[in-house]
């Protein structure tokens, strides 16, 4: 089994908690420390962004993190080095990259995928890649040994969910609302979307967008989702000098409540 499958199997009904950080923010050395901090806090999986000047899905908090990393001189090559270092320190924790198509194409699609795999990444989510254009990308990712992660939403048509189920690996990234990350608008966690993904045979659904508090975690997991990913709240806490490890620990604790309730 790959690291995602092993993780979900280990959790055995407990929700997975994913922590997002922007690679190189505020600089490579401190970013490596933050990556270690989220694991100490209990993150089951890590999602990392590659800093990009023109993101379409990221809100102001994560955009600012990308700008800080770029201002520090961080480029894609250093991002792969950070992933490789993390993989050495945490050999069992799944790592997914979130990026944009321009960064992949600029490096060469196959070269990017091969380098991601060599660094120890487990999955790749290209945020601006539509599902109908994804087949050749997903095929190339799999050939390189990396899981293609695709995005699903409540308004995604059944035909597209079927395509996602056929192409995706690792997990399915479920967005809880329209818009961008980190806008403080509450997520709307749709049980019907989770059920439709299960029926289509898609990889485990994991909710992102709108995950900032333990109550958000609980609401997402009540849909039957396999896990959650929190980004902006973690990135903001780090930028403000707060205790990232403690924040993650509190959010992770909320994922255990579903399992505890089921055992009563």
UniProtKB/TrEMBL annotation:
This is Tryptophan synthase alpha chain. SUPFAM superfamilies: Ribulose-phoshate binding barrel. GO terms for molecular function: tryptophan synthase activity. It comes from the Bacteria. Gene3D superfamilies: Aldolase class I. The gene is trpA. The lineage of its organism: Bacteria, Pseudomonadati, Pseudomonadota, Alphaproteobacteria, Sphingomonadales. PANTHER family: TRYPTOPHAN SYNTHASE ALPHA CHAIN, CHLOROPLASTIC, TRYPTOPHAN SYNTHASE, ALPHA CHAIN. The active site is at residues 47, 58. The keyword Amino-acid biosynthesis applies. PROSITE patterns: TRP_SYNTHASE_ALPHA. Keywords: Amino-acid biosynthesis, Aromatic amino acid biosynthesis, Lyase, Tryptophan biosynthesis. Pathway: Amino-acid biosynthesis; L-tryptophan biosynthesis; L-tryptophan from chorismate: step 5/5. One of its GO terms (cellular component) is cytosol. It catalyses: (1S,2R)-1-C-(indol-3-yl)glycerol 3-phosphate + L-serine = D-glyceraldehyde 3-phosphate + L-tryptophan + H2O. It comes from Sphingomonas sabuli. The keyword NADP does not apply. Belongs to the TrpA family. Tetramer of two alpha and two beta chains. Its EC number is 4.2.1.20. The alpha subunit is responsible for the aldol cleavage of indoleglycerol phosphate to indole and glyceraldehyde 3-phosphate.
């Amino acid at each position: 089994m790959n690291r995602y499958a092993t993780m979900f199997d280990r959790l055995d009904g407990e929700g997975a908690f994913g922590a997002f950080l922007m690679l190189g923010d505020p600089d490579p050395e401190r970013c490596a420390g933050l990556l270690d901090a989220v694991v100490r806090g209990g993150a089951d999986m890590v999602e990392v962004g590659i800093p990009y000047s023109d993101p379409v899905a990221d809100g102001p908090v994560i955009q600012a993190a990308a700008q800080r990393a770029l201002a520090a001189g961080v480029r894609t090559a250093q991002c792969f080095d950070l992933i490789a270092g993390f993989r050495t320190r945490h050999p069992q924790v799944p790592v997914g990259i979130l990026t944009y198509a321009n960064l992949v194409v600029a490096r060469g699609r196959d070269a990017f995928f091969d380098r991601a795999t060599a660094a120890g990444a487990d999955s790749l989510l290209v945020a601006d890649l539509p599902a109908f254009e994804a087949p050749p990308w997903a095929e190339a990712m799999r050939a390189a040994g990396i899981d293609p992660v695709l995005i699903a939403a409540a308004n995604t048509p059944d035909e597209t969910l079927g395509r996602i189920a056929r192409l995706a690996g690792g997990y399915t990234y479920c967005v809880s609302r329209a818009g961008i990350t980190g806008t403080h608008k509450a997520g709307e966690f749709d049980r019907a979307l989770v059920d439709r993904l299960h029926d289509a045979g898609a990889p485990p659904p994991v909710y992102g967008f709108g995950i900032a508090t333990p109550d958000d975690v609980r609401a997402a997991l009540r849909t039957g989702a396999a896990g959650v990913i929190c980004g902006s709240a973690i990135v903001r806490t780090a930028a403000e000098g707060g205790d990232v490890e403690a924040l993650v620990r509190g959010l992770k604790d909320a994922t255990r409540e579903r399992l505890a309730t089921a055992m009563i």
